[in-house]
Amino acid sequence: MPKIKSFAPSWLNEPSPGHKLFSQSSDDVRIPAGMHYGKKPKPGPRRTIARRGTEVFVAVGKQVRWGDLAYLKESWETKHARSSSGFLIKRESSDDSFGYDDEHAATETEGYRTIKTPVADDIRQLVMSPNQDLLAVLTSHTVHICILPDSSHLYARDATPFKPKFWTLGPTTHVTSRSAVVSALWHPLGVNGTALVTITEDAVVRVWELSTADRWTFDAATLAIDLKRLADGTYLDQDFGTSVSATNKGFSPDAFDMEVAAACFPTRSSGGWSPMTLWVAMAAGDVYALCPLLPQRWAPPPTLIPSLSVSIVAKVAATEDDPEASAEARLLAQQQLDWMSDLDNQEPKILESALGENVTEVYTRPARPGAIPKLQGPFEFELNPEDEQDDEVELKDIYAIGEKASVADLMMGEEEELDLGDADDEFGLSLTVICLLSTSGQVKICLDTEGVEAQWLPPRSKHRTRLFSAPPPSPSLLTLQTFDTLKPVEVMPESWPMFSQDVTSRHAFYITHPAGITHVSLAPWAFRLESELQGDSDAGAEFRIDLLAKGQGSERERIYTQARGQSSLAAATAISDPDLGHFVLSATHHNPVVVFFDTPVRDVSPRESPAAIAEHSEMPQPEVGWEPRPLFHASEALDRRSELPSWIDHLKTGKRRPLFQQELRLSMATLELFTDGHKVVSNEVEHINDAVAELFRKCQSLQSELREQIVKANEVKHKIDRTTGEDSADDDGPVSQDELARDRLRIVRERQEELASRMEKLKRKLGRATSRELSDKERAWAEEVRALGDSILGSEADQASKATPRTKQAWKRFDEVKALKDALFVQAEQLQRVRVGTDNDTPASPVPNLKIPLELRRQKMTQIIGMLDRESALVDAVKARLERLSVG
Length: 888
Description:
Elements: E1 4-7, E2 49-52, E3 55-60, E4 63-68, H1 69-85, E5 90-92, E6 98-100, H2 103-106, E7 112-115, E8 125-128, E9 134-138, E10 143-147, H3 151-154, E11 165-169, E12 181-186, E13 195-200, E14 204-209, E15 223-226, H4 227-231, H5 253-257, E16 260-264, E17 278-282, E18 287-290, E19 297-298, H6 304-321, H7 327-344, E20 349-351, E21 360-364, E22 375-376, E23 380-382, H8 390-393, E24 395-401, E25 432-438, E26 442-448, H9 462-467, E27 476-484, E28 498-501, E29 508-513, E30 516-521, H10 523-534, H11 541-550, E31 555-561, E32 573-577, E33 581-587, E34 592-597, H12 610-615, H13 644-652, H14 668-724, H15 737-769, H16 776-793, H17 796-800, H18 810-841, H19 854-887
Parallel strand pairs: 23-27
Antiparallel strand pairs: 1-34, 2-3, 3-4, 4-7, 5-6, 8-9, 9-10, 10-11, 12-13, 13-14, 14-15, 16-17, 17-18, 18-22, 19-21, 20-21, 24-25, 25-26, 26-27, 28-29, 29-30, 30-31, 32-33, 33-34
């Protein structure tokens, strides 16, 4: 979960120029109490912030304001730094306005611009195109397309409103006399991001393929589908278009059950049929899918058509080989094969792309089986809670996370690697996740386990009519988790909660509701579920899935709480930029709402190695001694102009005008006048009382927060004193830093010695207690000892077979040499005795004539001495080795 670092930076608060992006002008000050005379606006989604890099477009009333957040931040910080250094000289002009002599401060209007729009009502939604060159501006009933200029044109030093080119979309279709526009979505597969899909409240889907060179593309939709007619359709060649002349509408069950609340497309990088599947949520609680919904000219990603071709061919082969396959399944497989065959027969048109980008291939929507797909639904919710309330069933928004694009089977056996373009799409679920949001703030997480595929109605045929006499089973969604984001006291009947995409992970999103902003992450269970789905072993899978369902669910945290009495929040917009940081941007009708987070951390898949996980792990951060608190804004009721003067002016020009020119009398007209005045005043007084009470509670909380800050400051002071040694002062004076450092070093050394001795004891104890396997070095050493023993004592095999001729060992040769030596000494003694005896008894006689050369005797003696030395060295070495072995 993201860790909040700060709220509302100074460069977006008053009196900075960045605050002008969100504050209302004096001409557009809202008077909600004045709605008493007019028609109360119908509730709907409020998505008034669109992003283009570091630039944001904010809708305030009937205006669109542009601002570069990076430039506003840099200019404000530079101006603040120079003013604190004394380089800015503030001067007051004759028109009571303030200026600066600094050249940079004089151009503070740069980075902020007002865009003039041709709308006649308040703007409710801003939708940026995928190529960020078109901006859809939506009111409750109308749609305008703004051709965004280059950023260099908006940086001009001109305070006048900028007037870009605007096109009215459907000047006879999207008008106030017809149904309100619920959603406007840029089709993920549109050519250069120019295909727009609008969904009205009366369940009519229109596909617009826009071209600035052709005005007709803004007047008429290329494809219009009435979902109420399509739901009751039986044949492919029926008319499912809209009726142009039907403006008066009577009551019908379809008008209530098929009232659209929201719609969405999965992202372009999703796999399978997801990029061309439109998910529609009805206000009554039903969910429908329309697949495939394509414009006349569409540009798929590089992997979409090959992956669909492989799956369709495999499905057709499986259906033909299955004798029990139903007629509906065979017809569906054949229709998908016809659709893919039409694509294969086309020669795509290649569009030039920018340097470094992939080539764009443009296809034409297949004519077979048909342009209008079958309406799949309503989906049944499996494992749905049984105790749902009415406000929990009433849906307000839908958010679809498409299945991941799996190209492993597609590229099997290929040497080239396919670039997916987004590393985050490599990890994710192979199932589509559908998130539903109700009026009460309840979030329902559902899984499309069956998988939505392209479907069409059957063609008109008598034979196939008999085959389709029985209705097919309804599709279903598996309800994985349900949780609330609002408390019962925070639920408002007219509120409209909204989903917003997170920029750090495709498995996380934000929920904007009347009580604030909540962050939801599906990562705790998404990766584990995918590992189970992709696992090869089925043993224990049911047990693991049960643990997954009962274990930790989605993580949710409220990152911002809206104060009571404030206006509704715009849908949160997540921004992650190196210059700005990671934050979420929203706004009320008067002030911005910003929540800054720490640097986002990449989601780590469980399949990654521990080295990769350690590589992306965060460094330990120092302890934070303060808690960020949101900036408090007083209630708008304190700054709102009173309605009483306008009410009096209305009476002076109405039928009650004579009452102001005569004395006060007790009459029914006077009673009605006082009753109306009491309503106006009591309504304003009620809002003012609530605002004052909220302000009083905030003042009380400020006192308690100040006490907490004082306590924390004292704790920090005590920590500093303990570190510096100033808290250990006695009669002799404080202890010096050197003595403190020496004492701490001595204590650390003693502690280290104690730990080392304990470690040695534990190692010896473990060596005696454990019987672990020998290592490779220990095995080699044992073999060496065994071979040495065999060489000295002889092996058992040598003792059993004595007749086997073997080379004499060193100890045997040493014994033979000693025996020869003793024999020679004995012979020498005998010869000496014989010589002595002969000298005593008889006269000397000549020595036996043994003529041995002197050199030969020296060589023999040298050989004998060398052999003795060698054998002595061998014996000494053997003795020393045996002594070491015995000691060990």
